[in-house]
Amino acid sequence: MNRFVSHSPAETREVGGRIAAALEPGQVLALEGNLGLGKTCLVEGVARGLGYTGEVNSPTFALVNEYKGGRLDLYHFDMYRVSGWEDLYSTGFFDYLDAAGGDPGGALAVEWSENIAAALPDHTVTVALSALPDGGRVIEIKGMEV
Predict the structure, then answer these.
(1) In angstroms, rounded to a whole number, what is the distance separating the alpha carbons of residues 8 and 11?
(2) Tell me, what's the pLDDT at 81?
(3) Residues 6+ apart with CB under 8 A from 86
């Protein structure tokens, strides 16, 4: 497990960049943590680290945002409102999972992954964000060396 401490959005994005450098086609990043802890900021760092130059924002209302044009395509999901298998199928999650493992390949970043834990593949990388009393964040990464 890798453990990082962040005291700013820039530091959180930097951790995302480190994740991007180790990311392989077909991998899933399961992002865990309460609202406002920097999950989207971390995904922005991953997208930038992969070479994506466009806007990165939370897919809360779109359910999934696609970031293309980098070393890998990145599919950014928000599963906050997903409450069952029918909801999950309607997001296209499994289609994206299949596409990410193909050629040229891509990866998935899943916010609120706790809501779909039973559907995550065995090789999922867990990225847990938690708050520190001083306002900083602890970022713990399991399943990937960065």
Answers:
(1) 5
(2) 83
(3) none
Residue 113 CA to residue 97 CA, distance in Å, equals 14
CA–CA separation, 77 vs 4, rounded Å?
Answer: 23
Phi, psi of 96 (to 5 degrees): -65, -40
Burial 70-108 (b: 16+ CB within 10 A, else e): bbbbbbbbbbeebeeeeebeebebeebbebbeeeebbbb
DSSP code for 124: P
- Please tell me the predicted confidence (pLDDT) of residue 58: 82
CA atoms within 13 Å, Cβ hemisphere of 23: 36
- pLDDT by residue (tens digit) across 85-123? 888 888 888 888 888 877 678 999 999 999 899 999 989
Burial grade of 141 (CB within 10 A; 0-12, 13-18, 19 or more):
buried
Residue 45 has pLDDT above 70, yes or no: yes
If one compares 105 and 139, the residue with the highest pLDDT of the two is 139
- Burial environment of residue 9 by CB neighbours within 10 A (0 to 12, 13 to 18, 19 or more): middle
